Amino acid sequence: MATQEQVAEIAEKIRAGKTSLGIEFGSTRIKAVLIDDEYRTIASGDYGWASHLENGLWSYTVEEIWHGLQAAYASMANDVEQAYGEKLTHIGHIGFSAMMHGYLAFDAAGNLLVPFRTWQNTNTHEAHEKLSELFQYNIPERWSIAHLYQCVLDKEPHVGKVAYFTTLAGYVHWKLTGRKVLGVGDASGMFPIDPVTKMWETGFIKQFDALPEVAVQPWKLEDLLPEPLVAGTPAGELTDEGAKLLDPSGTLQPGIVLAPPEGDAGTGMIATNSVRVRTGNVSAGTSIFATVVLERKLKALHPEVDIVATPDGNLAGMSHANNFTSDLNAWVNLFGQFAEAIGTPVDAGSLYGTLFRAAIGDDVDRNCGGLLNYPFRSGEFLAGLEEGRPLFARAPEARMTLGNFMRAQLFGAFSPVKIGMDVMTKDEHVRVDSLVGHGGIFTTPKVAQKILAAAFDTPIKVMATAAEGGAWGMAVLADYLWHADAAKDNLADYLDGCVFKDAQSITEEPDPEDAAGFEDFFARFRKGLAIEQAAIKAIDLESK
Asked: Which regions form coiled coils (predicted)?
């Protein structure tokens, strides 16, 4: 709990505007985080929301966007007043971030032409295939350009009226500042970015405009896109109208300089200090993705790897798997039910800790002793699966021990994301110095870290600050506006020298025997995917 002196110190910083605000629109929560000039969270607020189906497509209404933003901001401002006795009239800098991709299209008068289509929609498969083939560059289904092109292919009536399209973060920023801009990281999920110019890939734009069904449109693609901006570039000021939209109470004053609006991948990179070339992060939850900042463009088209950009415009390769902890949690819950049945209930922390530690015990076989686990609760593009069936399998003579079983659970959970990582490290020879792991699975010391180090054969770091989320990362990007004009303070140096200079971390180096064991398990995992295909055919999705 803060002392009176600390409260007074922070109150003075609030009055002096030595603060930065980040607001991030996640898929289930809008979060606002206010930090001081030492990167400490001094106030926060949030608002829960959920997407809904509209005409068969996942969406959020414009009314929900603004109500949620205002509610999250008001919650944070109330936190400031309750904790420090200050009304929030001024903030040093502000930045907005959001889930990437999707489609928000407007006519020349600024009217939304169709309901917001989120990244969750997969009705863009034809556009994904045709554009990936045309560019020889992976264009995932969720990218904004895939949405626009699918509308063209489907001859949707609104297409000829499109004058501007953007992401959710870009939309909010535009309405608050009047500027049609986008942080280069978020922009890279709309359309490919040139890592040299940090602008759109002009060659791809020309190819797109030359497509017969596009050439007949009354617009050119470049005229529809926002302007990409690198981190540290002032991206406009909060207008009078914008201030009232953000804070209808009228307390917050206009004129505040905003940072370029970013995507959730970019703010995650900031929160884990992984924007430097040959570094990356692994975000593990219900799904999992691994991102590595690249030294060069990939040489070939790889559907397993999404290419995005860091907030300062370096390309990064991403391997994304839909499945991670759901099946693992189901097995842990089963052991928890057993403990209750014999009259010795165990709390969740002890249960997970005990089972996870068994996976790295002295008696385990490094390759899981012949046990296999498939974590596919849902479909998995990386494994070629349109649906999923969680499976555990073993040979008759496999060594069935608790340690081997839990090791197989963890090895199986990390295997799907390894498919895309192997494309980068083995096929494209991408070099990785270290990765930062973050997510709940890393709260049990050493276990997941050690196994991930074996899976990727790369040092894995876990930081004390890794619990900080994207809204905090966006607040840091807003603070970077104070530093970016100093030549020595490029984004990576700023993060190392200012934000994370005192951050505590633990690094786990890969154990050669563990790495060899994972490779053996992974070879059997890939070979055994036929079991999964058979299960999908044999077990109905709704079977109970």
From this structure: none
Task: Give the model's pLDDT for residue 331.
Answer: 98
Answer yes or no: are the C-beta atoms of 113 and 170 closer than 8 Å: no
Length of the chain: 544
List, in order, residues 6 or more apart from 173 with CB less than 8 Å away: 96, 179, 181, 182, 235, 236, 258, 260, 261
End-to-end, the C-alpha distance of the chain in Å comes to 49
Domain span at residue 379 reads 325-415+512-538
Phi, psi of 438 (to 5 degrees): -145, 150
* 133: in domain: no
> What is the model's pLDDT at position 486?
61
> Is residue 155, in this structure, part of any structural domain at all?
no
pLDDT tens string 98-145: 999 999 999 999 999 999 999 988 899 999 999 999 999 999 999 999
Residues of the chain falling short of pLDDT 50 = none
Whole-model pTM? 0.90
Q: Which residues have CB under 8 Å from 417's CB, separation 6+?
A: 282, 288, 289, 290, 319, 320, 321, 324, 382
Structure tokens at 476: 């840091």
DSSP letter, residue 531: H
Q: Would residue 274 count as lying in a domain?
A: no
Q: Which of 169, 159, 31 is nearest to 471 (CA)?
A: 31
d(CA 81, CA 204): 50
β partners of residue 394: 371
CA 241 – CA 234 distance, rounded (Å): 19
Q: Please, how many CA atoms are within 13 Å of residue 103, restricted to the half-sphere of its CB? A: 27
